[in-house]
Amino acid sequence: MSPEQLVIVYLLAGVLFIRSLGGLSRQETASRGNTYGLIGMALAMLATAFHPRVSTFVVIGSCLAAGGVIGAVVARRVGMTQMPELVAILHSFVGLAAVLVGLSSYLEPGAEITGVEALIHHVEIWVGVAVGAITFTGSVIAWAKLRGSISGRPLLLPGRHLLNLGIVAAIVGLAVPFTMHAGEPVAFYYLLGMTGLAAILGVHLVMAIGGADMPVVVSLLNSYSGWAAAAAGFMLANDLLILTGALVGSSGAILSIIMCRAMNRSILNVVFGGFGTADTKGPAKPAKDQGEVQEVAADGVADWLKAAKSVVIVPGYGMAVARAQNAVHDLTKQLRDAGVEVRFAIHPVAGRLPGHMNVLLAEAGVPYDIVHEMDEVNDDFDATDVVLVIGANDIVNPGALDDESSPIYGMPVLEAWKADKVVVFKRGMSAGYAGVANPLFFNDNTHMLFGDAKKSMTALVSAC
Amino acid sequence: MEKLGFEVIVERGAGASSGFSDEDYEAAGATLVEPASDGTYREAGGAEAWQADVLIKVNPPTLDEVDRIAPGATLVSLIYPAQAEALMAKLAEKDVTVFALDKVPRITRAQSMDVLSSMGNLAGYRAVLEAAKEYEGFFAPQVTAAGSLPPARVLVIGAGVAGLAAIAAARGLGAEVRAFDTRLATREQVESLGGTFLEIQFEESGEGGGGYAKTMSKEFIEAEMALFREQAKEVSIIITTALIPGRKAPLLVPTDVVDNLKPGSIVVDLAASQGGNCELCEADKIVEHNGVKILGYTDLVSRMAHSASQLFSANVVHFLKEVRGGEAWDIDLDNEVLRGACVVHDGAPLPPPERKPPPPAKKPAPAAVVEEKRPVKKPEEASAGRAWASAIGSLVLVAALFAAGTFAPSEFLQHLTVFVLACFVGWQVVWSVAPALHTPLMSVTNAISGIIIVGGMLQVGSGSLERGELDLASILGAVAIFVAAINISGGFLVTQRMLRMFRRKES
Questions:
Q1: Which terminus of chain A has a smaller tally of CB atoms within 10 A, N or C?
Q2: Do the chains contact at B408 and A120, CB–CB below 8 Å?
Q3: With 80 as the cut, is the pLDDT of residue B177 above it?
Q4: Smallest CA–CA separation between B286 and chain A, in Å?
Q5: What is the ipTM of this complex?
């Protein structure tokens, strides 16, 4: 296949990728979107196989098959509660591939280039490898944190901002000797050294971010993986890579922005903030006459639910941890069959991944048209009889609206307290990830149902 | 009521027409008193009864009756103050407190005391039964050996309490029910009862204060009439329930709509007491017009005396609870419900309460609040600063691009063009992704960023592998293919798995 024909096929693949993302705008077309992406990918790979530079099908084929099988097995086995980990580790693969392609491209540029072109090529490699390495190690750390292999608490080294700044400066600074000595053996060591530095930077950046900020970090890494691919496209002079990388990069960036807005914080604050632990020792405030919480048993909640006309369920990360989504669905179905209006209210940062709660509820079989976003439900809490808060904390904290001293002041929250009754499913009285006490729990209309969310839900289902 | 700490006196024979005997009342602990000598219903109530501290009546008292109320007493009754100026003036002269049950505010908490809702419910239900009595056909569809009959089609105009009760009753008899209301919010309620909500293509919602509809514009009414004329050709029963409090009932079924009805059709007009929704309607009569019967009963509630009595007394008991019962009797005018219902207090007429101001406009966006707190920068300055920063930023960017344009080779510029355009395309496309699909979005972008496999493929091929030599560049390329392949297959498959789970219907 001639390079010109290849361009056309790549163009086709690019269009398919754009349609793929476009298809995800609605549930009805989402599946088709995924198929478009798949076709685009197949086209691109097939066309590349006929590229004049490619001649070793055996190696390519065997690597492809091995990777493909592993990916398929993982995709089939992974539980929906583990989606954040899977997404994180997949990001790391893109980062790793970008590093490898970058190094390889330095060793074997493909065509003879000189002068400005060579300089640009080397800078491209430098950028691509740096972004790839940060994505790789950052994603690995995010993966480990999400799995729980590493504590979710932020690791805050003294002078961490200086450390970050120093590494960035070193990465930029090393580019000078690298481009000057490009072609000589020593330059490859510069490149490897820089890769190491970028890898350390990736580790350190993500180590300093707390568990609740993971949705932002994962989105950000998603964005990085796109930029890494785009950089690889520049060094290989491949428009399809550039296009796809830019698509993915902006997609991740938008997700990060959405998440940050949902927490009323800037992206810099999330990445460098070390939120909720930097300056607070223990709970933010001593309990100032907060009063006693009221406990309730499953039977009591069941009575309220049976008498209710409209129920809103607010799920949080706790539901994912307890794997309570199936029990929640059973309850929903039972109530809906009894004529109770049940809706779900999803806060944008609920869970550990954008849209995480939606996926879990969909897995359990909850129809998506009763699962609503924050803005769609917030005005209706007044007219709601019972709100069930399942393993969520900060996203229903009234302090975010009226307590200026609260660290989460200004964050949009679900105004569950306006409902007639609020039932909070919680394991204990610990604060949420933000480390902020929640006045909601002490309200007169709030009742606590302590215990494992799944067990409580199952008890509720049998009591209803 | 005894439980609330009242001593109860009941007029002898009060319950006779509702099927409650005097003995029932005595068994419940009430004292019976003789009605006044002439014994008519209007003049009912012996001297003893009129001396009570709290008087509960169904209909408004007559002017004579007002004279007989003991000073300092409290009267709880339907009053309709807006239409009864003479009565109000008379009441105001006496040193009494009057609660108008028809003025209980229509808020959630007061639903249990809402007499009008109770009565509306009864009237709506009865209207269907009266229509069924006059209608000479089946309501429910019939499938017989001789052939099938379609169900009766019923059009209910006005989906308030009475309208909804009528819809439910007509559905219960098996009829096909259509309903119309100017308040679009009622759509859901109509549909929940199995009715079909008729709509006109018109941008105006008739949501008035206190759960009533307001009067609509002329254009709207024309569109409405056109709809009714169309519907009249298809339906055989029309029930109108449109009452705007204290005003003449709106004209909804003019003669030409009735002309469109088939002979044998029935129109039941619940607003007959206020002039009627139907032009031809006459209060308390059945008017026949070209074979169509127009029922203008105003006593539908009395035809349900037993249930009406139960509901009314339950409403009153709830109301008396609100005044904290017989022992802790306390008229708290800060209580929204009592304030709304109280039309005369200790002999002084009270104006209707001010409408509660609508809830304050939404709080300013939290972000703005945070900005205001910064002591150094005022918001305008901050945003001006930001505008400057972004302007300078774009200038620098344009300058950098221009420099690149001057020095860089054209091939690089082509790639740059693709890159920048793709960023914008991605930006536009991704904003439209539903938040519920953000996780699938991530996994699909994960999969397509596996496109880096193309880079790996090119690198493997570019080496000297085909000559049997294994160089580092090719090995790196091969590993890249391997990891990218995991990404591609894993990403697409897991997305597919997730998307298959998003269903609209319950499994």
A1: N
A2: yes
A3: yes
A4: 40
A5: 0.80
Contact A107 B473 (CB under 8 A): yes
Is residue A224 domain-resident? Answer: yes
Name the percent of chain A lying above pLDDT 90.
16
Distance from the A300 Cα atom to the nearest Cα atom in chain B, whole angstroms: 22
Residue B411 has which token pair? Answer: 């091939």
Decide if B446 and A233 are in contact by the 8 Å CB cutoff. Answer: no
Q: Which of B114, B118, B125, B274 is catalytic?
A: B114
Which of B373, B428, B446, B451 is best to mutate for the A interface (most A CBs within 10 A)? B451
Chain A contact set for B436 (CB, 8 A): 27, 346, 355, 358, 368, 371, 373
Nearest to B268 by CA among B367, B185, B377, B167: B167
B160 in A contact zone (CB under 8 Å): no
CB atoms within 10 A of CB A61: 12
Q: Where is the domain boundary, A42, A77, A112?
A: A77
Contact between A243 and B422 under an 8 Å Cβ cutoff? The reply is yes
Catalytic-role residue among B68, B77, B102, B117: B117
Residues of A annotated as catalytic are 394
Q: Is residue A159 part of a domain?
A: yes
Nearest CA in chain B to A264: B367
Closest Cα in chain A to B493: A75
The minimal CB distance from A41 to the residues B415, B418, B448 is found for: B448
Q: Which of A56, A48, A64 is nearest to B465 (CA)?
A: A56
State the average pLDDT for chain B: 74
Taking only the tens place, the pLDDT of each residue in A49-70 is 887 777 677 888 888 899 999 9
Q: Which domain holds residue A199?
A: 86-271
d(CA B327, CA B337) in angstroms, rounded, equals 20
Q: Can you tell me the distance from the alpha carbon of B278 to that of B270, in angstroms, rounded to the nearest whole number? A: 10
Q: What six digits make up the tokens of A441?
A: 């729990």
Q: Looking at the domain assignment, is residue A381 inside a domain? A: yes
> CA B45, B49, B54: angle at the middle one, nearest 5?
120
Interface contact A120-B488, CB threshold 8 A: no
Between the alpha carbon of residue A344 and those of residues A416, B27, B465, the distances in Å are 12, 51, 57
Low-confidence winner among A99-108, B239-248, B411-420, B440-449 (lowest mean pLDDT): B239-248
Residue B392 neighbours by CB under 8 Å, 6+ apart: none
As a whole number of angstroms, the distance between CA A345 and CA A366 comes to 13
Domain shared by A143 and A30, yes or no? no
Same domain, A306 and A222: no
Domain count, chain A: 3
Contacting residues of B for A98, CB less than 8 Å apart: 452
Q: Which residues of A touch B407 (CB under 8 A)?
A: 116
Q: Are residues A424 and A317 in the same domain?
A: yes
Q: Which amino acid is at B363?
A: K
Is CATH 3.30.70.260 correct for B120-300?
no
Same domain, A173 and A238: yes
Q: A28, A52, A77 — which closes off a domain?
A: A77
Domain B2-111+305-349 has CATH 1.10.10.10: no
CB contact residues (below 8 A), chain B span 380-439, against chain A: 407-409, 411-412, 414-415, 418-420, 422-427, 429-439
Shared domain for A222 and A96, answered yes or no, is yes
Among chain A residues, CA nearest to B432 = A25
Q: Identify the bridge partners of residue A109 per DSSP, sorted by sequence position.
A: none
Across the interface, which of B445, B474, B506 has its CB nearest the CB of A226?
Answer: B445
Distance between CA A362 and CA B501 in Å, rounded?
5
pLDDT score for A246: 92
Taking the C-alpha atoms of residue B36 and residue B21, their distance in angstroms, rounded to an integer, is 19
Residue A290 lies in a domain: no
Question: Helices then strands (H, E): number in chain B?
Answer: 17, 16
Collect all residues of chain B within an 8 Å Cβ-Cβ radius of residue A116.
407-409
In this prediction, residues B313-332 reach a mean pLDDT of 72
